Amino acid sequence: MAFKDAFKSPATSLDDQMESYATKRVPQTQRWPAFAILLILTGNVTAMFWFTLGGQISFLVGWPNMLLPLTYLVVMSTILGALVMRIASKEGLSLVLLTRGLGFGAKGSAIASFVYGINYIFYFIFEGSIVSHALSQYFGIGQSSGTASVIFALVGAAALFFAWRGMHSMNILQRFGMPIFIGLFIVGMFMLADGYAIAGPGEWVSLSPDDPTVMWQAFSLVNGQIVFQALLATDYGRFSRPKIGYRGTAGIMFGEMIMIAIVMVLGSMLAYTLLPTLTQENPQLWATDPGFVFALVMGFIGVVFTIITQIRINVMNLYSGSLAFANTWDAFARRPIRRGWWMVGILALGIVLYPINILQYTGTFLAVTGIMTNTWIFILLADYFVCRKMLRYASVEKIEYQDHEVRKWNPCGIIAMLVAVLVGAAGVIGIYPVYYASFVAMLVGPIIHVVLTVATRGRFYRVVSDTIPATVTQGKE
After folding, report:
1. Alpha-carbon distance 259 to 233, whole Å?
2. Widest CA span of the chain, in angstroms?
3. Which of 39, 53, 319, 476 has the least C-beta neighbours within 10 A?
4. What is the pLDDT of residue 15?
């Protein structure tokens, strides 16, 4: 394969580009080289969110302690991403479609799909808010003003334009967007060094040194991401060629996560460099707001840098969110809504919710998303590797997902997720420390699922119908 071909996508119709196999398998003829998948995922690497998260973690635990949660993030995301991406690649199915066969049923999977989609609404607003904050800093526009909302809508519409044709337009955007990002960031670092005293790692001290819980809080923040990064990668990994093994999917994930860790460290440097110079109320929040930071340091160039970066990542947020909501709707409705219109809906909802300034709720959101998404994916992995591979209650050769292949509801996965989320919610409302919540939930869920599947002898994998004979793929009786 020529080097340039390693980054090229296969030709396909405009309709298939737009729908992007949201509710069916990706055919063998539409599989992409691994490097092309990694190229698209670089859009996630440059998300402004990582600058924020890096600053928040370093404020909690300082240097070098922040390397512990960062290592946990890289290692766990690589392992989990390698596992779920390999399954998705083998099956050619998105994770929300895999959920139908892996313990939830056709309609039960819609619950997980809806939760998954909600995540992307948050990230879409988060990234869009950063752009508005950059413009607010440079032009003096009120962050909660009508003008800021209009700007948010316009930049979101630009992301919608690039996301409309799915993987193909994203491949083009990310191919040219990454060099621009790197070039402008280097310019920004020179401007930072010229105007400020750079704070080195020795100055990155914890702002709460006497709080013994800060390390748990830091781990809770990244725990909300270890699975989400695997989920995001799997939306694109289903297009990778079936022959790719766990080593290949692990390579894709590790390459992405190492770059993310570097961006987080740079976010810490930016936060500590600017913190002593800020006079605004709650300076820690401002120091970890990339829109404000880059506009402050780089002026108009910083605004341009922020806009380009936001569009690149929000293309991914719109794309993955549309997949989730398309599958949620498809599970209940007779007439599907095309993937593109779900992106329009996400944009509209983002415009409505923008004035809330959700950046201030990042910690709470990551705790909640860690509870829900971690529990969901650990249940799927338990189903695939324990219930199917080890206990052989169903086949691992082909995961069922169509309505006539799976039950509408599989109570094993649904009950397991409901109980685990309730256990995690108890931490969110203060019954026990919230920073334990996502860890407890992601352990409780898969254990309950395996127990229920064993107790029911896997009978909820099998379809029972008056017109279609019950089938047993490879199960125990």
Report:
1. 14
2. 75
3. 476
4. 45
Place of tokens 């992995």: 381
C-beta separation of 295 from 23 below 8 A: no
**Residue 129 backbone zone (phi > 0: left; psi -120 to 50: alpha; other: beta):** alpha
Amino acid 34: pLDDT: 63
The predicted pLDDT at position 420 comes to 93
Count of residues making up the chain: 477
Is the preceding peptide bond at 64 cis, omega within 30 degrees of 0? yes
Per-position b or e across 309-343, b if 16+ CB within 10 A of its CB: bbbbbbbbbbbbbbbbbbbbbbbeeeeeeebbebb
Q: Closest by alpha carbon to 52, among 319, 366, 367, 320? A: 366
Using DSSP, state whether 32 is helix, strand or coil: strand
Question: Nearest Cα to 323, choosing from 158, 155, 93?
Answer: 93
User: What does the pLDDT read at residue 152?
Assistant: 81
Assigned token pair, 340: 């593109």
Token representation of residue 411: 């109570």
Confidence at residue 230, expressed as pLDDT on a 0 to 100 scale = 76
Distance CA 228, CA 247 (A): 20
For 62: left if phi > 0, alpha if psi spans -120 to 50, otherwise beta; the answer is left
Whether 401 and 443 have beta carbons less than 8 Å apart is answered as no
- Structure tokens that stand for 439 in this block: 């860890």
Cross-strand pairs, 32: 240
β-bridge mates for residue 281, sequence order: none
Q: Please tell me the distance from the alpha carbon of residue 91 to that of residue 349, in angstroms, as a whole number.
A: 32
Classify the C-alpha dihedral 180-69-296-363 as positive or negative.
positive
Phi, psi (degrees; rounded to nearest 5) at 66: -65, -20
Helices 146-163 and 339-353 cross at an angle (nearest 10°) of 160
Per DSSP, the three-state class of 240 is strand
HSE-CB for 439 with a 13 A CA cutoff: 14
Tell me the C-alpha distance between 221 and 239, whole Å: 30
The token pair that represents 377 in the structure block:
């994916």
Location of structure tokens 């526009």: 141
Instruction: Describe the crossing of helices 34-45 and 167-195 by its angle, rounded to 10 degrees.
Output: 40
Closest CA to 270 of 254, 303, 294, 249: 294
**pLDDT, mean of each 10-residue run, the chain (477 residues):** 48 47 68 67 76 93 95 94 86 82 86 79 80 78 75 83 68 69 90 92 90 91 82 73 80 88 95 91 88 89 85 79 79 74 86 73 73 88 93 85 83 93 90 89 94 92 56 41
Per the rule left: phi > 0, alpha: psi between -120 and 50, beta: everything else, 10 is beta
Cα 239 to Cα 168, 322, 336, distances in angstroms? 11, 17, 22
